[in-house]
Specification:
Length: 381
């Protein structure tokens, strides 16, 4: 249960105990939702946890669906090059900062949890002025620009990896959704494959690369499918992403019946099932690698080359260093390389099993509770 000093007071509906600020992408927002649920489980009222996010992000749908209240801030991030769009972005940041100050002054939270993104910066700066404690949640080895700025003022930073470059860091792991934490691949594999209409006895490769998708990964898979077309012992579930899905499906390879099972989907809204069903993942290496670790799923990791401070490469190398993953640079992911890596792993069950054990060893399944305890410890009494 929450400590008495941290328990929410029965005050007006406008007041809350914690503001969780940031988002824009699922990678930023979902850990925040997991922490919110952990705080509720620790004794805080759901109505006492309030989210502040971007008016351009996924939070407009995901936060209300989870039963939490939400304020949206205008604005967008500053681009790392000279452009007229930055003028509008700067004005949006100013408007967002003013709105964040008004929200925090009205809500009077005991603590602000910063998830990253421009909404978290606005709320954190308002929190500094109002003397509200700040706790950062960082998913990557190399912190993003927003969290590095906020880190100067935060009382604590909850991080996923040893060596993350933020002051006052505590390694908690990356908080995960309850449905991901509940996955047991050995127990759930058959049922998951049946529900996804994948062959129960085949080797299953899950390919996914964020909500937008990756052209490099998609094109490598497009070329690999004809080479595997004869394999009735192999199944590919390929999450193409929303950006290129329509173009991809118009010319997607279609293996003949009796051979490779190849599924093409726009967006995976049953990720827990896919992780349970798969023997191997081919994916990017953002904060979502924590989900691979949670279920012990070996992976071929293809870091996004334009990720801020190349943090995806740092994440991937951290997992490769313990034997949990293979890392392939984006520019090296040709069809030939993909085929070689996937076949090399699937045809060596002992190595795949060792990678799965190493991946599971990197997991921190109680990360949400650890972060919630850190937030309670830093909150203003």
């Amino acid at each position: 249960m929450a400590a008495e000093s941290a328990s929410p007071e029965p005050t007006s509906p406008a007041r809350c105990w914690a503001v969780i600020a940031g988002g824009g992408t699922a990678g930023h927002l979902l850990p925040g939702l997991a922490v919110a649920e952990a705080l509720v489980a620790a004794g805080h009222a759901r109505a006492a946890i309030h989210f502040v996010g971007s008016d351009r992000g996924v939070e407009a749908r995901l936060v209300p669906d989870a039963g939490f209240t939400l304020d949206e801030l205008p604005g967008r991030g500053i681009q790392r090059r000279l452009t007229l769009a930055n003028v509008g972005a700067a004005l949006g940041i100013v408007r967002g900062l003013a709105r964040a100050f008004a929200i925090l002054r009205r809500r009077r939270p005991a603590v602000v949890v910063a998830l990253g993104g421009h909404a978290s910066v606005a709320c954190a700066l308002a929190a500094v002025v109002l003397r509200v404690p700040i706790v950062i949640l960082e998913q990557n080895v190399r912190a993003g620009a927003a969290n590095r700025l906020i880190g100067r003022f935060a009382r604590a930073a909850a991080v996923s990896f040893d060596g993350t470059d933020l002051p006052r860091a505590t390694v908690t792991g990356n908080p995960l959704r309850p449905e991901i934490r509940a996955v047991d691949r050995a127990r759930d594999r058959r049922v998951a494959r049946e529900q996804l209409e994948l062959p129960v006895d085949a080797k299953v490769v899950a390919v996914f690369s964020g909500s937008l998708g990756s052209r490099q990964i998609n094109e490598a898979v497009r070329g690999a499918v004809p080479r595997w077309a004869h394999r009735n012992d192999l199944a590919i579930r390929h999450v193409v992403g929303t950006r290129d899905y329509d173009d991809y499906v118009r010319a997607a390879p279609q293996p003949a019946p009796g051979g490779l099972t190849y599924q093409v989907v726009r967006y995976e809204d049953r990720m827990a099932l896919l992780l349970a069903a798969a023997d191997l993942a081919v994916t990017r290496s953002g904060g979502g690698v924590a989900e691979l670790a949670a279920v012990g799923l070996p992976a071929v990791l293809v870091p996004l080359p334009i990720a801020t401070r190349d943090h995806q490469t740092a994440n991937a190398r951290a997992l490769a260093a313990v034997g949990a993953a293979v890392v392939v640079a984006d520019h090296d992911l040709t069809t030939e390389r993909l085929v070689a890596e996937v076949e090399g792993l699937l045809d060596d069950p002992h190595r795949l099993e060792a990678m799965a054990a190493a991946m599971a060893g990197a997991a921190r399944p109680d990360a949400a509770e650890r972060v919630a305890a850190l937030v309670e410890a830093q909150a203003r009494g």
